[in-house]
Amino acid sequence: MQKPMYILGIESSCDDTSASVTCNSKILSNVIANQEIHSKYGGVVPELASRAHQQNIVPVVQQAIAQANITKEELSAIAFTKGPGLMGSLLVGTSFAKSLALGLQIPLIAVNHMQAHILAHFIQEEDNKIPPFPFLCLTISGGHTQIVKVANYFEMEILGETIDDAVGEAFDKSAKILGLPYPGGPLIDKYAKLGNPKAFTFTKPKVGDLDFSFSGLKTAILYFVQKQQRINPNFIKEKLNDICASIQFTIVEILMDKLKNAVKKTGIKHIAIAGGVSANSEIRNRLQLAEKHFNWTTYIPKFEYTTDNAAMIAITGYLKYLDGNYSDVSVTAKARLKVTE
Question: Per UniProt, where does Fe cation bind (predicted)?
Answer without folding.
Answer: 113, 117, 308
